[in-house]
Amino acid sequence: MLGPWEAEARADGLEEEVISAVVTRLRDYHRLSPTSRQEALQGLWRRLQRGTETETTLSPGEVEDQPVETPSSTSAGAVEIDIEVEIEEAETEGEAQEGPELTVVEQRTESTTAPRLKEHRPSSPPTATSPISPPAALQAQVTVLPGVGPRHGQTLERLGLQTLGDMLFYFPRRYDDYSHLKPINRLWYGDEVTVIGTVQNVGSRPIRSGRITITEALVSDGSGALRVTWFNQPWITKRIRGGMQVVLSGKIDQYLGRLVMNNPEVEPLEQQNLSTNRIVPVYPLTANITQRWLRRLMHQVVTYWSPRVQDPLPQELRRAADLLDLSTALLQAHFPDSLEQLKAARHRLAFDEIFLLQLGLLRQKRSWQERTARVFETPQDWLESQLARLPFTLTDAQQHAFAEVRSDLASGRPMNRLLQGDVGSGKTVVAALGIAMVARHGSQSALMAPTSILAEQHFRSLLALLTGEGGGLQPEQIRMLIGATPETEKRAIREGLASGEIKLLIGTHALIEDPILFADLQLTIVDEQHRFGVEQRAALRNKGDNPHLLVMTATPIPRSLALTVYGDLDLAVMDEMPPGRQEVSTHVLLPRERERAYSLIRSQLEQGRQAFIIYPLVEEGNREAPDGDENGGRAAVEGHRRLQKEVFPEFNLGLLHGRMKADEKDEVMASFRDGQYHILVSTSVVEVGVDVPNATVMLIEGANRFGLAQLHQFRGRVGRGSEKSYCLLVPETEDSAENERLSAMVETNDGFVLAERDLEQRGPGDFLGTRQSGYGSELHLASLTDLKLIEKARHFAQAVFQKDPDLQLSEHQALAAALARSWYNDEQPTRGDIS
């Protein structure tokens, strides 16, 4: 405890001589015998009495004779120090009785002789309106807390709690409202209440051959009596006894016609009630930690440290946005006085998360826009000739996106645009026109795709769009580079890029390898951008000098998510499908109706079509079975074997799953595309796959396991030709057929509508995938479905940014520090890459 205490003592202005005396005498405390410890403490006590003003009038002898009270605010940085008990011994002793339920203080006996040292400190903690700097002790390990030894420290680390600061921002997952007291004679079945009464009797007995211990107590309050039961908690008999007044909080149940309360929280009436008679926080737990123990620990940290945390938001901003100060918000988020205070506290903390994210995005966008890029002016007559070459007319959405790309290329600033559009909406055509505009000036472009099969698909499409009469490019000026490219061809590609002869290179991550050097790379395009990390996209951009950047995604992004996470990118939305594109007919089938799906597939195959069959698992047995399904979720390997042998023996079935090597997956997809397989049995790896216009049926087994984003991506694999196409959803159980996601799939083919619903049901994970940005803080309280909060935070972030973009004003110094802590690599923030 000395390190954190020393830092806080200096922050409180304690004399250096006093600090030195305490540190010197207690540094070797753990090595002393009990007698030597007592002598050292008494000597230090006398030294402190001589040199400083003390808050206590007790002598060391008087302290020895007093029972030690539970400290309500002792913490690592406090100047009130309990020094007697060996933490490990207390921890072991406590666990032997009740896991980590008992604190260090509860292990003391009346013969404790160690004095409690108190030094002078301010009569009240700093107020929230005049916060001190963030205390250094917030970085102290949780093991400095009384009752937390190395073993409990390791357990807390599994919850992400390593420091006192971590604990301060470790918020409850829910709250139980036990603030409403009721007399026993007015209780009703199902009530969640707090009851105050007197214990009439209490005892424990084994049941079920000793496998379970039941503890029962009878509690009365004058109006009636209530039977209370705890299972496998025999230590309850040591905590309460007959005649003791207690506070019980829990849910009223019924047994043999009488009202009972099972496994309630219980505390003696005279103690500070953290688990009863109030709105009680319920924290996420891990093995070997009880809710009560963690709650008590959190209260100790939060009540002491929340007033000492600096508020990053200026008072003027808080007033304008109608926000609580941070200290109050932290305290009320953990231990709320009322539901109104809890709501206001969580609103403030959620606002902070979105506000800091928005500030970082604005900073990144400005940093990008301050750079200069090559100007690519394009004559209108040349553009019209290129559009006339296309075998189709651009949709209004394509024309709008193309106009934005054209404007970006002519702006003199690097384009930093996200092109989002549903599967089949025609994003590749817009990218092709951008490539053509750059190639017209003799410069180079690069397109990076996540898989070889997608890279090959883009290569074929762009070769057809950009070459031929009036196309502007020759076939030899467009090349493809993937892992399987022969070394001799790779060498020729490297030479062509370095000389400038190759104008467009399409490939996978092989594009960003060191030997690849471009003569004049001016446009970089990333397809399915969420499949690449920040470093990979940055490596591609670094192949050129401030090249223009266009990133594409086939996942429709809800407006709230786009505002929040893609705020540094200019968005071009393509929400219109090309004419002639077939709407996929979607149906939900019960598991017993699976044969109907097979019949439809068979009829389509006999007409020369192809089909996909998707399974949620690779192999059976690698995930727990849902209720009533002894075989677990249906799996691709077993499904492929059964379908080939029993259901479609006259057809060829291919198998694709994530455990296969990349070249094996590419080979299977290419064979399916070329018609060598009639049916492709696959897991979700086909979600972003090759274009197979001949495929007309998508059968999804275990459809209830997938989110709307995935289901919509699967459905987008069919209906790409001129023939009528079908998507059949088969849940694992009949009850699952009522799943909201499956109903939504039947109701609409609009990817943006489905994206909004998926965001509400499953959160942002389906859209963002693994967090890959420079933003280092998780969104703990903010909901990406709360558009009102997002727009509010965005409004105030823009106001602050316009007034002081570098946060150099004195009122913004704390905000600048908070922003630096929220973003990785603050000195050189990742530009333009958020997800």
Question: Keywords, please?
Answer:
37% helix; alpha/beta; Rossmann fold; seven-stranded parallel β-sheet; OB fold (Dihydrolipoamide Acetyltransferase, E2P); disordered C terminus
If you had to describe this structure to a student in words, what would you say it looks like?
- The chain is an alpha/beta fold.
- Among the domains are: 2-127, no CATH class; 180-277, Beta Barrel (OB fold (Dihydrolipoamide Acetyltransferase, E2P)); 380-411 and 425-553, Rossmann fold (3-Layer(aba) Sandwich), CATH 3.40.50.300; 585-748, Rossmann fold (3-Layer(aba) Sandwich), CATH 3.40.50.300.
- The chain contains 28 helices and 23 strands.
- A 7-stranded parallel sheet has the order 13-14-12-15-16-11-17, with helices on both faces.
- Strand 13 (478-481), helix 17 (487-499) and strand 14 form a beta-alpha-beta unit.
- Residues 52-133, 622-633, 768-774 and 825-835 have low confidence and may be disordered.
Spans of at least 5 consecutive residues with low confidence: 52-133, 622-633, 768-774, 825-835
In the CATH hierarchy, what is the superfamily of the domain at 585-748?
P-loop containing nucleotide triphosphate hydrolases
Name of the CATH architecture of the domain at 585-748: 3-Layer(aba) Sandwich
Q: Give the terminus-to-terminus CA distance.
A: 41 Å
CATH topology of the domain at 585-748: Rossmann fold
Kindly provide the name of the CATH class of the domain at 585-748. Alpha Beta
Count the strands?
23
Assess the beta-strand content as a share of residues.
15-25%
The structural class is alpha/beta
What overall form do the CA principal axes indicate?
globular
| Alpha-carbon Rg, integer | 34 Å
Mean pLDDT: 77
How is the largest sheet built, in terms of strand order? Answer: 13-14-12-15-16-11-17
Classify the helix fraction into a percent range. 25-40%
Summed up, the helix count is 28
Largest sheet: 7 strands, parallel
